[in-house]
Design the sequence.
């Protein structure tokens, strides 16, 4: 106590009315503590307790923010570098960094334990199930259903909706973008004698030994209203490449000169048609990578046809006449080919909003080592450049007696996670990707499968963790185990771990032979408005 008999004002008491401050001091013993003692008390609290402290009043919130930017950051996150907050001068800025680290740490623990906030199970008779952004769509024989993913403000789920649009004929393809626009390809038979369509507008097939005619159409539907924006007869010489934010991209798949076509997503008009002399692109969708300015780049595997002897695998020495040799990058604004990246055995994985993508290379030296090449777009050079090359060792996940291992279905090279679906148990597993060591017989000068890129990091798989699954009876589990197909990879395991469009932390597993799909949502169910002070204002300060 100072000699003049007045108590020194503490930082968390500033800007408060004197009468309310004295009343709070009489009721709240915590106000009598000095900074050191109060900090000791705060060190025993977890993140959820700190979030509740922010909600007491402005004084508590101010003190919590002061503690977050000082000793609290290093006590709660001892592994993070001190330079994370040392360069920040503002208390609010340091508190914001603390909150962001707290959210990341909570998400990391949820992934590490396999504890999803929500597990959605979809059972459908159709063959199409697509997830993009916050939308999931699937179909039955004559209807399209959709659901918005994520949670409402109160933590509840969005309901399943029936699309008001009724397709004509059989649906052969459905693709949705992150804004909720659905691209449909449908087909229905017509009488060839009464049809006035030209041969270019029709396709022929022979069902049950009879000649029939089938019309293929393309259309775009807005899910929320069910309105069909445009519809046209499908050109058999063009195949869908990707559905972007404002454009639909096609590429020629016939024997004519190769071309790249873009249509307006909402109106269907042709924006441009670019010709190029590249070899045929393989089937399957491309990935869209967005640059920092929001423009879209289309990354697609590139295939060439030339005789090449097989190395290892089944029937080594035979000639393969078709194989992938890399990817091509197209500019979504004009369709020009910006770049060709050579990387054998590639599978592209995008990190769309950051102008980055990764190429998952093939097996190295017929072992369990797989290459991961990460590329970043350079605005100065106008193309992607190789940033890092990592090698992932999957041997820790090999099952006893199975020389092929458990066949890791998916890898997120940016969040450093891997996924696997266990057919026998009917459940999924998560594996953290952790730093590893180079094999003992490897030398830096060694060339692996013609790849001379230096290795920047060696990675391996950590211990697997089973993902939380919906409860099932023993009879249902036995039915799930009994379903088998001859395909060695009956499960398509896709990930939504990449911070794609506002950090959606989801995992999607589509079990094709079961006509069943699971969406594991690891995000927070609700964002609570914390920090309600005496002035009645709500400030969202922390997610719990």
Sequence:
């Amino acid at each position: 106590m100072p000699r003049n008999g007045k108590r020194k004002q503490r930082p968390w008491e500033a800007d408060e009315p004197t009468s309310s401050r004295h009343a709070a001091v009489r009721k709240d013993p915590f106000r009598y503590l000095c900074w050191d003692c109060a900090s000791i008390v705060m060190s025993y609290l977890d993140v959820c307790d700190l979030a509740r402290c922010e909600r007491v009043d402005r004084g508590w919130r101010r003190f919590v923010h002061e503690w977050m930017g000082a000793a609290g950051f290093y006590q709660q996150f001892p592994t993070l570098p001190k330079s994370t907050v040392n360069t920040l001068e503002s208390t609010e800025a340091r508190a914001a960094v603390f909150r962001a680290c707290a959210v990341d740490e909570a998400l990391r623990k949820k992934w590490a334990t396999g504890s999803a906030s929500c597990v959605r199970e979809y059972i459908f008779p159709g063959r199409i199930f697509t997830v993009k952004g916050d939308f999931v769509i699937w179909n039955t024989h004559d209807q399209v259903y959709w659901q918005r993913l994520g949670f409402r403000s109160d933590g509840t789920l969005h309901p399943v909706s029936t699309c008001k649009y009724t397709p004509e004929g059989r649906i052969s393809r459905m693709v949705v973008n992150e804004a909720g626009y659905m691209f449909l390809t449908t087909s229905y038979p017509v009488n060839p004698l009464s049809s006035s369509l030209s041969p270019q507008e029709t396709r022929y097939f022979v069902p049950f030994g009879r000649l029939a005619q089938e019309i293929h159409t393309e259309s775009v539907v807005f899910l929320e209203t069910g309105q069909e924006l445009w519809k046209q007869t499908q050109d058999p010489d063009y195949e869908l490449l990707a559905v972007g934010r404002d454009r639909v991209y096609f590429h020629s798949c016939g024997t004519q000169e190769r071309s790249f076509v873009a249509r307006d997503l909402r109106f269907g008009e042709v924006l441009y048609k670019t010709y190029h002399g590249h070899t045929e692109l393989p089937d399957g969708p491309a990935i869209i990578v967005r640059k920092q300015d929001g423009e879209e780049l289309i990354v697609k595997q590139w295939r060439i046809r030339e005789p090449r002897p097989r190395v290892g695998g089944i029937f080594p020495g035979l000639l393969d006449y078709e194989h992938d040799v890399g990817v091509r990058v197209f500019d979504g604004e004009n369709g020009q080919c910006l770049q060709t990246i050579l990387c054998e055995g590639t599978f592209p994985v995008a990190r769309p909003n950051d102008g980055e993508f990764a190429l998952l290379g093939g097996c190295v030296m017929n072992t369990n080592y797989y290459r991961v090449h990460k590329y970043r777009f350079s605005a100065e050079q106008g193309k992607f450049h190789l940033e890092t090359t990592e090698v992932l060792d999957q041997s820790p996940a090999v099952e006893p007696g199975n020389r092929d291992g458990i066949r890791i279905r998916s890898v997120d090279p940016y969040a450093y996670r891997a996924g696997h679906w266990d057919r026998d148990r009917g459940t999924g597993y998560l594996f953290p990707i952790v730093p590893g060591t180079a094999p003992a017989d490897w030398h830096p000068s060694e060339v692996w499968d013609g790849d001379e890129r230096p290795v920047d990091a060696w990675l391996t798989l950590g211990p697997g963790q089973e993902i939380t699954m919906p409860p099932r009876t023993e009879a249902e589990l036995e039915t799930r185990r009994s379903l088998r197909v001859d395909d060695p990879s009956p499960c398509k395991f896709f990930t939504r771990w990449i911070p794609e469009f506002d950090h959606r932390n989801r995992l999607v597993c589509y079990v094709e032979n079961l006509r069943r799909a699971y969406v594991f949502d690891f995000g927070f169910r609700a964002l609570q408005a914390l920090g309600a002070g005496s002035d009645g204002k709500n400030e969202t300060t922390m997610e719990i």
Summary: The radius of gyration is 28 Å. Residues 291 and 355 are 4 Å apart (CA to CA).
